[in-house]
Task: structure prediction
Amino acid sequence: MSNELIKVNVCVVTYNQQDFIRQCLDSILSQQTDFVFNLLVADDCSTDRTPAILAEYQSRYPQQVILLQRSKNLGAYQNFKDVHQQASAPYVCHCDGDDYWLPGKLQVQADYLDRHPDCNVVFTRTLVEYAPDELVEDNITPDFVPEHGFRRADVLRMISIGTNSSKMYRRPARPYPYPDIPVLDYFETVEQTADGYATYVSNTCYSVYRAGIGIASQGLSTRYALHQNFRYFAKRFPHERAQVNTAALFLFLADLKNRRQSWKSGLATFIATFHPAVCLHAFKAVKQLKTLRNPERN
Result:
């Protein structure tokens, strides 16, 4: 399979996910498309049966599954960053090894990017799986997405505008710089949006997020990483400092309300990134931020 023919790279990160990785890979490999795509699967030195399962899939799909088997544990952030740096196709997707897709996802997103050259990132709506038979649609409503999409300022302020496993993005013409801090999907979406915009492909759910399993459920480590991301972006994009400060404020208030020990670090980050326009931006963002919460269970 020539790299020149591959239109989409699907980056899959996994660690000790023997109970979920088959469904993840099957949901990707079964996608029906009119273009060629492949999978870059980065296993972070799993200690369960995940490596054996991945070896089986690589044997079955030698032209489509490229296995990046780590000889030592890199950690979730470095594993995530490395596999995306190796992606070279025009369009790139991400899927966590415990999530999975629904039919039609790849084709509809690639078609959207083909038709909208100014769009750099496109998400799909997501079903949240609390249990195998308990799937709930996300809270995304039509008025959540701005008429002209999410600009970088919106992404900086809102932290998360879509689930990472639902994303497809246009590979930048030039690599953006990576600071020596943990790299989150927040960081990547800010940089990938660049001077274009991010949006949702339609009102249809094409991906499934398993709640309470992956890195997003790790809580404090993710929050401390976000604090570092905020400080970095406040310096990298000084004209968007108010947006960054708004994000820092919301995270601080959420931690304070839930009595998380990270609130002190959050307060320090809010002060370090302070901008006097924070109140205005925070007032505007309240309604949108409520939409980003996981939906209520039935």
User: Anything to note?
Assistant: The longest strand covers residues 197-210.
